[in-house]
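TEACHING EXERCISE
Course module: macromolecular assemblies
Task: Read the component lines below, then compare them to the predicted structure of the full complex.
Student: A.B.
Group: 4
Components provided:
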Amino acid sequence: MDQGHALRTSIKGIYQGGSMDKREFIERLKQSLSVLQEDELRDILDEYEQHIDMKVESGLTESEAIADFGSLPELTAEILEAYHVRADYAARQDGRERYEPGGGSSALQKDKKGGKDILKNGTAICKHACIALGKGIRKGGLWLAAFLLWLWRQVKKPFIWFWNMGKKAFGALKSRREREEERLSETPISPSASDPIEQITYSELDSISALDSTLELDSTSAPEASSALETLSASESSSAPESMSAPESVSAPTYAASLEIKSKTRSAAGSVARPATEPATKQATRPATEPATKQATRPATEPATKQAVRPAAKPASRSPRRTSSRTSFSGAFRHMVKSVGRGITRMVTMGIGAALWCIRMAWNACCIGGSLLIAVCGLFFLYGLGVCLILLKEGYPMTGVTLGCFGLVLCAFSATGFGFSLLWRRRSTEKPCLAAGADPVKDTDELEKEDKPYA
Amino acid sequence: MNAQFKKGVLELIVLESVRQKDMYGYELVEEVSKVVDVNEGTIYPLLKRLTNEHYFETYLRESTEGPPRKYYHVTAAGILYRDQLEKEWVELSEKVSRFLKEQKA
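Instructor-supplied answer key:
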C-alpha cells in the first residue's frame, strides 16, 4: 500500500511537471482562483493549507500531500465549477489559452468575426435609424404644423369674437354720434341777440333757396305773403324813384325775387323751429343788407306790408314762444340723458378695453411662462440626450432611448419657438389694426377728442 | 473505479458521512477515502458547492492540535437531498443489477 502510494505520488509529481512546496502550490492556486472573491479565495486556500499541514503531521512531505490533490488545472476547474464559474474564463484571466487545444485561437477568431459583424450590423442599424429618423421628422413636422394650425385657429376664435364685439359696439357708438351730428347740422343755429336774418347777404340767397326746398311752407301764410310781395313790388315799381328802386348791383326783378324768398324763409323758419323772439313783421320788413336809401322809402310801403304779413306771421310767432320753455327744458333733460348715456358708454368702452387688455396680458403671460417651462424641460432632455449618446458610444443598448430623447428635445424646443412666435404674431397683427383705426383704445381717444366740443 | 461513477455517488457519500456526525475537511476526506478512492482535492470543491446550495452549514471549533477547524453540519434540506439521492441510487442500482442479472440469465 505504501509502495503504491509512493509510486502514485511520484507519477503525479512527474505529471505536474515537478514537485512544489506548500507556499508555491498555494500561490499558484491563488493565481488560478483569482476570479473568486477575496473572502471565498481565502477560505479555500486555508482549507488546502490546513489539509497539507495535517498530511505533513501524518508523516508525508509537502510534495506528497500536494501530489494527492492531482493536477492543478483540474483542481482549479473543479473548484470553479463549484462556484458556477467557467474554468476557461479563469484560465484566460491568467493569460493562458483555453484547455482545449486550439480553443484560444478559435475564440480569438470568433471575437474578431463577431467584432466585424457588430460593426457591420451597427452601420446598417445607424443607416436605417437615420432614414427612419428623417421620415419621422418629416412626418412629425407635418403633423406638428397641422396641429399648430388647428390650435392657432382654436385660440384665435375667442379673440376674433371679442374683436367683433368691440368693433360692433364702437361702430354703433360712432353711427349714433354721426346721426346726432347730422341732426344738429339740420337744426337751425340757436338764436342770438341780434336777428340772424340780418346777417344773411345776397350771396347767401342761393343757399337759402336750397334750404327752402327742404322746408315746408305754411299753407296759409305763403299765399298772403306772395300777394303782399306782389303789392310791394307793384308799389315800388310805380312810386319809387329810379335811384331808390333797387340797389345798383341788383335789378328790380331779382330784388323782388329775393324778397319773396326771404319772406318765405322767415315764415317757414318761424313756423318750424325758430324760437321767434321777434315779431314776424320785423322779419318781413328788414332786409339785412338793405341800402339806406331803400330804408328811407320803406315807410311808404310799410302799411301794406304790415297788413299783408302780420296775419300770417302772428300765429307762427306765438307757438314757438310757448314751446321755447318746453324745448329748453326738454333740451336740458335730453342733454342730461345724453351725458349720462355718454358716460355709461364710455365706462362700458373702458371696461371692454380693460378686459381686452387683461386677456391680452394673461395670454402673453401664459405664452411666455409655458414657453420657458418647456424650454427648461428641453434643456433637461438635451442633457439626457448627451448622456444617452455617451452611453451609446460606450456600447450600451441605448439606441431607442437616445432617439426618444432626441425627439423630446425637438418637440420641446419646437413648442418653445411656437410659444414665442405666438407672442410675436400678436404684436405684428396689432399694427395694421391701429392703422385701420379699428383699435378700441384709439377709438376711445378719438371719441374723447370728439366729445370735447360737446362738453 | 470509474471517475464518472465516483463523481455521481460522491455527493451521497459525503452527505451521509456528515449526517452521521459533524466533520471538518481533512476528516471527511479520510472518511470518503475509506469508501472510494477519490482525489482529495475534489472533496473541498464539493463541500463548497453543497454549502453554497445550503445543504451544509459550517462553524469553527477550536482544536488542541492547531488552528481552529471548520466543521460541516448537514441541514434539513441536505437531509432531504440526501434521501432523494439515496432513493435514486437504489433505483438505479436495482435496475442496473436486474438488467445485468437478466443479461446473464
